[in-house]
Amino acid sequence: MTCPICKKRKAKRFCPAKGEMICAVCCGTEREVTIDCPSECAYLIASREHRDERREVDWEKMPFPNQHIPSSALEAHEPLFIQLSYAICEFAGENRALVDSDIQAVYQALAETYQTLAGGILYENPPAYLLQRELYGKLRREVEEYRKQEQVGLSAQRSLRDSEIRDVLILFTQIAAGKSNGRPKGRAFLDFMRLQFKPGTFARQESKIILAP
After folding, report:
1. What gap in Å lies between CA 74 and CA 123, rounded to an integer?
2. Looking at the DSSP assignment, which residues form a beta bridge with residue 185?
């Protein structure tokens, strides 16, 4: 059987996205590029494992390259990560087109908003792309809801600062960038967030691979 994509090589791998056999080369080159791979695909999972083993962080290419936020910021506000992760997974369940690059763009825009707030002003520049803009609004509300919940448990002398929210959002943006593979249909970071919840919670089946932070 000839591969239906290249129409040249022999089809040896079953592609669950296309529902037919394709060749190994097209599987590797078109994966998450023109093929919208499901998270349970064994070849997708293996490729992520291979990438994680070889991955090196290039800080010059990371968002906010001059800001290295300590992991203690995430540890202090882990409930915020869970709350935002759930909101994103819920949004992704309703919007199948959402991919890692959308999530990263939204996190970055949100981090920039709180960076201006930490400087004493408010300047918002939500993403222009409608899907990203809608997610931005949803996460903006989630962050403010988290702030209200946190302030209930804090003393009157210790309210949650904009700079703390900013640091957590910058760290989230950098984690998203580190886990993403840069492919147009990549969802490695989205699947990582889905792993925070019980199987079957969201429409897309979660990946079997656990990605280290």
Report:
1. 24
2. none
Identify residue 20 by its one-letter amino acid code. E
How far separated are the first and last CA of the chain, in Å rounded? 41
Torsion over CA: 202, 207, 209, 213 (sign): negative
pTM for the whole structure = 0.85
Q: How far apart are CA 38 and CA 32, in angstroms?
A: 9
Q: What is the CA radius of gyration of the chain?
A: 19
Taking CA atoms, 176 is separated from 24, 88, 180, in Å, by 28, 12, 6
Cα–Cα distance, 187 to 181 (Å, whole number): 8
Please report which residue ranges of 123-187 form alpha helices under DSSP H: 130-153, 162-179
Percent of the chain with pLDDT over 90: 59
Q: Which tokens belong to 90?
A: 């819920």
Kindly provide the residue ranges of all beta strands, DSSP E only, lying in the chain, ordered along the sequence: 13-15, 20-22
Per-residue pLDDT tens for 164-193? Answer: 899 999 999 999 999 888 899 999 999 988
Question: How buried is 133 (Cβ within 10 angstroms: 0-12 exposed, 13-18 middle, 19+ buried)?
Answer: middle
Q: Which two tokens stand for residue 183?
A: 């492919």
DSSP, residue by residue, 57-74: --GGGSSSTT----HHHH
What does the alpha-carbon distance between residue 131 and residue 133 come to, in Å, rounded to a whole number?
A: 5
CA dist 72 and 76 (Å) reads: 6
